TrEMBL record, chain A:
Residues 251-354, 743-763 are annotated as: Disordered. It comes from the Bacteria. Residues 1-105 form the HPt domain. The modification Phosphohistidine is found at residue 48. It comes from Maritimibacter dapengensis. InterPro entries: Bact_Chemotaxis_CheA, CheA-like_dim, CheW-lke_dom, HATPase_dom, His_kinase_dom, Sig_transdc_His_kin_Hpt_dom. This is Chemotaxis protein CheA. Signal peptide: none annotated.
From TrEMBL, chain B:
It comes from the Bacteria. InterPro entries: Bact_response_regulator, Sig_transdc_resp-reg_receiver. The keyword Phosphoprotein applies. Residues 8-125 form the Response regulatory domain. It comes from Maritimibacter dapengensis. The keyword Phosphoprotein applies. PANTHER family: RESPONSE REGULATORY DOMAIN-CONTAINING PROTEIN, STRESS RESPONSE REGULATOR PROTEIN 1. This is Response regulator. The modification 4-aspartylphosphate is found at residue 58. Keywords: Phosphoprotein.
């Protein structure tokens, strides 16, 4: 087993992250609303707990900083200091710093003294440098020793004390081992029934020289206290019953198994044997007989690290479910140091959670993906065999399909996390970046509890940081400018997350000046990104920001404009299967919308065929499907068609042509059209030969092998084992030539070097 | 029969790290009958079904703090005489005075080493 202290330390750092989160939360509440007592207490407690844990592991830098922070917070608690203005700002900085120190301690990095010092100085300005530590020497306290004649047993007598005791004697034959059984697992199964004590008996154990390793020599006596019936005990031995001698008998009043315990001397420990009616003053809690001498006890003892998991506890009813039998409702004494104005009583009972290694979850996710594929294959085979639709096989299969889907959703939910942690990091970015350029900026967040796949959250941090910095640096005007414009001096950056039709949409919005389109256009022409005579729509100009190498910052500031710009943001979001769009109103501000899939593992897709190729189109991109009739098609320009959808004309895109499977057909009557919608409302009609199926597909990334392929999001394995590409409709449409007429019908001179579609380069 | 085999202890702390550390230390002393709770309310519930000889509780906890827990214990007949060891962040006169009034058996300031804990426990229950 690994070092229990190392485990506790690791869990300390995990706990610190939770505490830091509630610390940030608390500060934000104080900032947004009020500095009520309870919120201050939450913040104080978080710092206090981090300090306490850090002290136990000798993390001195962390302790001393947390201590100063805590002392300052205590000033606020006692009303000597107000948490507002610069003090509150300092608290935010301290919170960030504390987080850094925790992470540095965790990763064994050295911390940057130069960064810490000014913060410590600021704190010391508030609290003074002279620590009041001398006080403790003056406090007189006399320890009250306990006279241990108290009667503690009453509720126990009624409950557990009456559990009948069983004596199980178990002598495995050699065959038991040969068949791969392991007595230890049987004991564990018994432990689930109640309190057990296992004694190994070795009278038959031959001398080492004569020992046949293939032969079993040992037997065990197990004393078990349980409410369960004899059959339940026997059941634990169900699979080995023929491979051992088993005797299960109810013990008499005599403590079970005690008479059969082997002499203590074989165990090698110096602990005296547990006996009833010992001579200690302390009355034995009823039925608690423990023996440290038992050689086999190691096998059934839990690891010492999980102290609350002692086997004695397993048999008990969960105390949480029971009303206290004797404890009165707790009266509250007045306590000067911790005010009782507890509003958040609900945080007294934290939700039960289990921490699970991420690798295990990922394995589960992968396995579920395989199940989905297998299930699809099975469905197809059943279909191929020609089993009638209402046969039990088919109904069973349908249920299986439903279950698979449920399992999949549940598993995906395990990986989902609220975006809160991400938003908190952004709140820090806003604080730091606005301070650097002396703008007053407030981050307003919404939908913090929206859940997204953990990987998505992690990989969103960098692009989002960049966008937030952009908003602060380029989006918002300076304080003075805002005042002249009649806006609030303090700029606002809004960060929101919400679920919209199977995707998560994250918006970064500022209430700044909006995009200066003249400047953007001029810059793009100057940099040779677009031809000088280009006529672009407002939306197209805004989208120029996403071109590689585009930066409008007049001077490269410390914050953004380092040459890597929105193009990097976009490519990293595309790598997550997401899309980013931009919307700007002059004088009102700019909004960036990121739309992301909820999971990176599966998607609902429509399987279509074009020129005998099978392709998958994400279902959530498809608004509508319809059959093409020649009445609906209109010629538009020399090479393209539009289709009339309820009196709206939508450009027609031939998937086969765009992907290079065929030349434009010119006549698309009989084809199937998929209406594709995008974030910005634009849609296109993508024409395919036929729709095969609608099903969940497991996403297999192409990125590692092929890099980014324009118009293609990923690949998948279909039910029949065939590989199909998953399209990225938005990307595909953005790059589409839109050609739907055969080349011969087009005047080659009139080939559009069109200014109407913005060419998006891929890299 | 040694004391440590029979001694039952309830560890109360909202931080799992602290619970882990204390439980680990007690385990090292050979005390195996240890349960833990995340706050005063949970501790009272557990003690009602699993009586203990000694409560080791943190002072600063959400919901019900250490002294409030002590007060509750002292006011219930079943737990009136239970031993109480308070873990304090910093030694504040007010807390210690209040503890004294409520019948706290001993206190130990954070951070402490396992030996400090052992001494503090032994001062209450006798040699382990």
């Amino acid at each position: 087993m690994s070092d229990p202290m190392a485990e506790i330390k690791a869990s300390f750092f995990v706990e610190c992250e939770e505490l830091l989160e509630s610390l940030q939360d608390g500060l934000q509440v104080i900032y947004d609303e009020s500095d009520d007592e309870e919120t201050i207490n939450v913040v104080f407690r978080a710092v206090h707990s981090i300090k306490g844990g850090a002290g136990a592991f000798g993390l001195d830098t962390l302790v001393s900083f947390a201590h100063k922070f805590e002392t300052t917070l205590d000033e606020v608690r006692s009303g000597r200091l107000k948490a507002e203005g610069n003090v509150l700002k300092l608290f935010f900085t301290c919170g960030d710093m504390l987080g850094d120190l925790v992470r540095e301690a965790r990763d064994d990095e050295t911390h940057d003294e130069a960064r810490l010092e000014p913060v410590v100085n600021d704190l010391e300005k508030l609290i003074g440098t002279d620590e009041v530590t001398g006080e403790q020497t003056n406090i007189e306290f006399e320890v009250t020793a306990l006279s241990l004649d108290l009667d503690i047993g009453t509720p126990e007598d009624a409950g557990l004390g009456s559990d009948p005791a069983w004596r199980v004697s178990f002598t495995p034959s050699s065959l038991l081992y040969a068949n791969g059984n392991e007595p230890q697992f049987l004991f564990r199964a018994l432990r689930d029934l109640g309190e057990i004590e296992v004694t190994c008996e070795t009278p038959d154990l031959p001398h080492l020289a004569e020992l046949d390793p293939e032969h079993g020599h040992m037997s065990w006596v197990i004393s078990l206290k349980t409410n369960e019936a004899k059959d339940a005990i026997r059941e634990a031995f169900e699979f080995v019953e023929d491979l051992c001698q088993l005797d299960i008998a109810q013990s008499q009043d005599q403590p079970p198994g005690l008479g059969n315990l082997p002499p203590a001397d074989h165990s090698g420990t110096d602990e005296p044997m547990a006996t009833m009616g010992g001579d200690a003053d302390l009355p034995a809690p009823p039925d608690e007989i423990t023996s440290d001498t038992d050689a086999t006890s190691d096998e059934v003892h839990p690891s010492p690290a999980s102290g609350s998991d002692v086997p004695t506890a397993d048999a008990r009813p969960d105390p949480q479910d029971l009303e206290p039998a004797s404890a009165p409702p707790p009266p509250i004494p007045s306590d000067p140091s911790a005010p009782n104005a507890r509003r958040g009583q609900n945080n007294a009972t934290p939700k039960a959670t289990v921490r699970v290694d991420l690798d295990r979850i990922d394995r589960l996710v992968n396995l579920v993906g395989e199940i989905v594929i297998n299930q699809a294959m099975l469905s197809q085979s059943v279909e191929a065999v020609g089993i009638p639709p209402n046969s039990p096989v088919r109904t069973g299969l349908e249920e299986f399909q439903q279950l698979t889907r449920d399992i999949q959703e549940s598993v995906m939910m395990i990986r989902a996390q609220p975006v809160k942690s991400l938003f908190q990091r952004m709140s820090r970015i806003v604080r730091e970046s606005s301070a650097d350029i002396k703008k007053d900026v407030r981050l307003r967040t919404e939908g913090e509890n929206t859940e997204v796949d953990k990987t998505v959250i992690e990989r969103l941090a960098d692009p989002l940081t960049h966008m937030i910095r952009n908003a602060v640096d380029h989006g918002l005007e300076s304080n003075a400018e805002r005042e002249t414009l009649g806006k609030s001096r303090e700029g606002n950056v809004y960060l929101s997350a919400l679920h919209r039709s199977g995707r998560v949409v994250i918006e970064v919005r500022d209430d700044g000046a909006g995009i200066n389109r003249e400047k953007v256009l001029a810059k793009a022409i100057e940099k040779g990104l677009i031809p000088p005579e280009s006529q672009l729509s407002d939306g197209e100009i805004d989208n120029l920001l996403f071109l590689p190498g585009f930066s409008t910052a007049d001077e490269v500031s410390n914050l953004s404009g380092r040459g890597v710009g929105m193009d990097v943001v976009r490519s990293s979001i595309q790598a997550l299967g997401g899309r980013v769009s931009i919307h700007s109103e002059p004088g009102e501000g700019t909004t960036f919308s990121i739309s992301l899939p909820l999971t990176l593992a599966v998607l609902d897709g429509m399987v279509v065929r074009v020129e005998d190729e099978t392709l998958v189109i994400p279902l959530n991109a498809i608004f509508e499907t319809l059959a093409v009739s020649s009445d609906d098609l209109r010629t538009f320009g020399p090479s393209t068609h539009v289709i009339n959808i309820r009196d709206t004309f939508v450009p027609l895109i031939d998937l086969g042509t765009e992907l290079g499977y065929r030349s434009p057909l010119g006549d698309y009557t009989g084809g199937v059209v998929l209406l594709i919608g995008q974030e910005d409302g634009l849609s296109a009609a993508v024409i395919v030969d036929s729709i095969e199926d609608q099903r969940q597909v497991v996403i297999k990334g192409l990125q590692d092998s092929y890099g980014r392929v324009p118009g293609i999001a990923a690949a998948t394995i279909l039910g029949d084992g065939q590989i199909a590409l998953i399209l990225d409709p938005a990307d595909l449409i953005a790059q589409a030539s839109g050609r739907t007429k055969p080349y011969s019908a087009v005047d080659p001179c009139n080939h559009p070097s069109d200014g109407t579609t913005l060419e998006v380069r891929e890299w | 029969m040694s004391l440590r085999n029979q001694l039952r202890i309830m560890v109360v702390d909202d931080m799992s790290t602290s619970r882990g550390l204390i439980t680990q230390a007690l385990d090292d002393f050979g005390i195996r009958q240890v349960e833990s709770a995340t706050d005063g309310h949970a501790a009272l519930k557990k003690i009602a079904t699993w009586p203990v000889h000694l409560v080791i509780s943190d002072m600063n906890m959400p919901g019900m703090n250490g002294l409030q827990l002590l007060h509750a214990l002292r006011n219930a007949p079943a737990t009136r005489k239970v031993g109480f060891l308070l873990i304090t962040g910093k030694v504040e006169r007010d807390i210690i005075e209040m503890g004294k009034k409520l019948g706290m058996n001993n206190f130990i300031p954070k951070p402490f080493r396992p030996d400090d804990l052992r001494n503090a426990v032994e001062a209450i229950v006798g040699r382990l």
